[in-house]
Amino acid sequence: MNSAALLARDSFVEMGARERARRLLDAAGFRELLGPFEGVESPWLARQGVVPQSDDGVVVARGTLDGVPAVVLAIEGAFQGGSTGEVSGAKIAGALELALKDAEAGVPIRPVLLFETGGVRLQEANLGLAAMADIHAALIALRQHVPVVGVIAGMVGCFGGMSITAGLVSRLIMTRQGRLGLNGPEVIEQNAGIAELDSRDRPLIWSLTGGEQRVATGFADILIEDDAEAIGQAVRAAFAAGMPAAHASQRVAFWRERLAQLPERAEGTALRRLWSENGSDREAGDE
Amino acid sequence: MTRPDGTERSWSTRREDKQRRLERAAAFADGRVLKPDRIVEALETIIVSGDRVALEGDNQKQADFLSRSLAKVDPAKVHDLHMLVSSISRPEQIDIFETGIARRIDFAYAGPQSLRVAQLLEDGKLEVGAIHTYVELYARMFVDLTPRVALVAAEKADRAGNLYTGANTEDTPTIVEAAAFGGGIVVVQVNEIVDVLPRVDIPASWVDFVVKADRPAAIEPLFTRDPRLITEQHILMAMLAIRGVYERHGVVSLNHGIGFNTAAIELLLPTYAQSLGLKGKIARHWTLNPHPTLIPAIESGWVESVHCFGGEVGMEGYIEARSDVFFTGPDGSLRSNRVLCQLAGQYAVDMFIGATLQIDGDANSSTVTTGRLAGFGGAPNMGHDPGGRRHASKAWLDLKTDTSPLARGHKLVVQMAETFQSGGVPTFVEELDAIEVGQAAGMPIAPVMIYGEDVSHVVTEEGVAYLYLARDEEERRAALAAVAGVSPVGLRHDPARTDDLRRRGLVAYPEDLGVRPTEAKRSLLAARTIEDLVVWSGGLYQPPARFRSY
């Protein structure tokens, strides 16, 4: 990329959830389910001194992708770190279940998850966790019928319970700005100490969890520039490619073998050296 | 000449005393090169109790090997020093007051150590001569605060003692000049001793000793603002400033503060300002540290010249490749100079624009907001209208409101601040905290950063107040209140009065300037991340690790 391209670029990272969903879907036919004017808010946040948001930080958008009916679940990273609460979790789970009904009835549906989340919302802990279970059950049922595509654009990234969700999708698209990890760097530093991980050492954090590393080591499938047009094309191409031979989360033997050969110091470059040769061949399947 | 009592007075006592000290210290040196492992003993012979000692430390570069070594000298041998430190940044610069090595200090800024300074002051272990601005402290080194010993930092030296200070030349030549020509002793820590220097920034005849530091001098990347943290509110204010100040007055030469508001302006030049057709008409000549956020404007051909107070970590390679824009030596690397850049910033540029933390109803401002006494740095000098200026320029004349034949222009002194700081703390207040802090510290005057009488414009997210157009104090206050939002000062504003002020051009709201607040989006920024800045620089800018992500 050069400076002219930088100026011309339509940054996806800079967009809010609603704008991302609108930009991703085909130009005509955008509509929102349980949109902000329906006012379904978290009943828990106000009691804890947090101002709720009238969409609870999740946009459920219907429309089409290349003319095929689609549902985009876009998480708003700017609201409570994109965390999953009772309402926002139910919106995601419910939308996936609706998509499942369509898929079971043979109605075409293209489900897309736009991750931007630190995981379960601490203020609604158990309800958020329960929602995770619903989301994962629905996603696994849905992916038997149609591919499910995930995008981690950044800058919040995708952590906690939602990183497991990202691990369940059929194809995962990331930008270099995006990060994917079970525990966020601040959490690791707090629990294991700064000697284990300095959360302010950004090159280190990205060398472990950044999009480039995650794609190089086979935890995500497609690395894309931060450009709305390019991301839109990548999502469409991911659906056009059809179902993967196997979902990453089904390749248990493959991951076991990898874990067995973990290097002494499992930092970014060592993992990349070790895993990049066999990491890219995710489509092969080993069940 | 013989004195009345018959004795001869010597007129070269300082030179003779210096010679005696140099001879004693020679035991710890090989020619001009001090042995690093004997540095503490060397300092004990070079420095004598009660000396005035200039210890180089500004907001960027610190002679930290020498300050750590000074903290190790025996307080029984060396005590009661009078320190001159422009910016107190390191703990050991303060430790020496606890051990009694030093007793008195003159400084300009005490950012990270301001709480300890206040504590030691209260405990009676530290006396403050005065809290200066940078140029005042350096100026006084040539009047009544000439250092007996100067402890400074350079990047490289040769064996003869010539110095290469490079991109971070900053204050070094000034301190060295005051000491070397005032009969003092100059000791320089260097990162490397080499046979051939890239260029000579300070000649060997000004230098008494060099010593190789145990690790490179500490340098802070203080002027790097991550575009990721620029908000839409910053962008709106930047748009208001570009239209309401830069375009309105045709501001060609200027200095920017280090806040995110002015970083937003730098990043809007190649996009928003370009779309307004302002390229070549504004912002061509700068007195400014090498802000990475200026890279897109430079690359787009907006910037003709930049003279720098100091360097900036990571910008070295970029600057070398853009020598038409920056002041560079024959070796290619940047030559910064704080005092000359301050001078240029006062007399040669038409505008200072910067942020602040508190503004009162009369537009006096201060960054002193809590119980800490941070000092001034350079902002009060940049942020004032120098009465000694005589050359005219369009922008300077534009602010002339008096029709008398003796009237002169005015420097644009622009304060840019959101009406509230984070956490809902108002920026516009009835009384500056500085008044109480100044009284508590026993300061003869309140630590005001920029006086209201110098301020020509105030820009907030509400609009622009053209204070220089006010006919009297009362009208000034009304214009300021009109852009102060719902802060205590803003709540005093009278809507009918504001309408009149808008008609007469003392107050402009976004619609008066053709600015649409809904267009204030981050997509307007020429770079939205540090990585974008690297791309703009063609890979020449190498951000420090803490600013990089991938």
Layout of helices and strands, plus pairs?
The complex is a heterodimer of chains A (287) and B (550).
Chain A: H1 3-8, H2 17-24, E1 31-33, E2 58-65, E3 68-75, H3 86-104, E4 110-115, H4 125-142, E5 149-152, H5 161-168, E6 171-174, H6 185-192, H7 202-209, H8 211-216, E7 222-223, H9 228-240, H10 252-260, H11 268-279
Parallel strand pairs in A: 3-4, 4-5, 5-6, 6-7
Antiparallel strand pairs in A: 1-2, 2-3
Helix pairs in contact in A: 3-4, 4-5
Chain B: H1 13-25, E1 29-30, E2 33-34, H2 39-46, E3 52-55, E4 61-62, H3 64-70, E5 81-87, H4 91-98, E6 102-109, H5 114-122, E7 127-131, H6 134-140, E8 149-157, E9 163-164, H7 172-181, E10 185-193, E11 209-212, E12 218-219, H8 232-249, E13 253-256, H9 260-275, E14 285-287, H10 295-299, E15 305-307, H11 316-320, H12 338-347, E16 351-354, E17 358-360, E18 365-366, H13 379-382, H14 394-398, E19 412-416, E20 420-421, E21 425-426, E22 428-429, H15 433-440, E23 457-459, E24 464-466, H16 473-482, H17 495-503, E25 507-508, H18 530-536
Parallel strand pairs in B: 2-11, 3-5, 3-8, 5-6, 6-7, 8-10, 10-11, 13-14, 13-16, 14-15, 16-19, 17-22, 19-23
Antiparallel strand pairs in B: 1-2, 4-12, 8-9, 17-18, 20-21, 23-24, 24-25
Helix pairs in contact in B: 1-2, 8-9
